[in-house]
Specification:
By secondary structure, this protein is of the alpha/beta class. It is built from six helices and 14 strands. The longest helix has 22 residues.
């Protein structure tokens, strides 16, 4: 059994306040508990990680030293900003493994995540942390995590290297694919332009199609898929193309085409209010009782058992 809990569901920047109390204002952080084998995995260290850390101090620490793994989708700030406020890093008994992709080998994951903890930005330096913390660069691949847990990683379409995660355990599949947008033909397709090259334009179409199909195969058949849905299609097309995020309509179409059982729309636009989400839910949410997946907007504090 996997227990998946949302501790942060927003994109870009925390947005606390009465207008976001229902769906939540913290940035990305998802917890997976494998109770049968006593394992915990955390995906992303956005501001939601702070509340998760506080919960672990009260729930897990009384049972023994904290040991956990954090898998970062990428290192944009909204996905790592919670790390300095994760209370377990200040305990000498804590063991943490941090995995994630880095765009440049000269910038290690430790340097990027720990770079937040210098006196320029924070009163405690990384070197002063009491916990034992290890860092490992992660690439595309398939990994045996032990205890019957298998992880497959897939590069997504974002301005820096970004990974989607597919966890398989006891016949169930939990998959994340956020901070990504549909692959586009990057070459000029206007035959009247001086930059147009027919061969390059055709090649660009093929590559974009292949990459989109590869990502859809990655999420196929998931029991729960957490997919980027920061914008509506009406918001995405006029001014958000190339920003590395998807529309709700695209996420839903992918889930339907690939027989996903539950779709959590995720990485919410920070300016969107609870009232606006309720209006969007009336349009896009589905119970999953009929033909197609259950569709819902991820809420902070929401928990799903697979």
């Amino acid at each position: 059994m996997m227990r998946v809990k949302f501790w942060g569901v927003r994109g870009s920047i925390p947005c606390p306040g009465g207008h976001t109390a229902k769906y939540g204002g913290n940035t990305s952080c998802i917890e997976i508990r494998f109770d049968d084998v006593g394992r915990q995995i955390i995906i992303d260290a956005g501001s939601g990680l702070r509340e998760l850390g506080n919960f672990m101090m009260g729930h897990d620490l009384p049972k023994g030293p904290i040991s956990t793994s954090i898998y970062l989708s990428h290192t944009h700030w909204d996905h790592i900003m919670g790390f300095p406020f994760f209370t377990p890093i200040y305990l000498p008994s804590t063991r943490i493994e941090v995995f994630g992709p880095v765009s440049h080998e000269s910038d290690t994951l430790e340097t990027i995540v720990g770079g937040q903890m210098t006196y320029r930005y924070f009163p405690v330096r990384q070197a002063e942390l009491a916990a034992t913390i290890s860092y490992a660069n992660l690439k595309e691949g398939r990994f045996d995590l032990g205890d019957g847990i298998t992880l497959t990683t897939k590069y997504l379409n974002h301005p820096i290297l970004c990974l989607g995660y597919r966890f398989e355990y006891q016949g169930k599949v939990f998959c994340t694919a956020y901070d990504t947008e549909p692959y586009q033909n990057l070459f000029c397709t206007d035959s009247d332009s001086t930059e147009y090259d027919e061969g390059m334009a055709l090649e660009g179409e093929v590559v974009a199609r292949e990459q989109n199909e590869a990502l859809e195969s990655f999420v196929a058949g998931a029991d729960l898929l957490v997919y980027d849905a920061q914008y509506t299609q009406g918001e995405y097309i006029p001014g958000k193309v190339g920003w590395g995020h998807s529309s709700m309509e695209f996420a839903i179409a992918v889930a339907r085409r690939r027989q996903v059982k539950r779709l959590a729309l995720f990485h919410h636009e920070p300016v969107r209010t609870d009232g606006e989400f309720d209006e969007l839910a009336a349009i896009y949410a589905q119970t999953g009782d009929g033909d197609g997946p259950e569709i819902f907007f991820a809420r902070e504090g929401g928990e799903i058992i697979l």
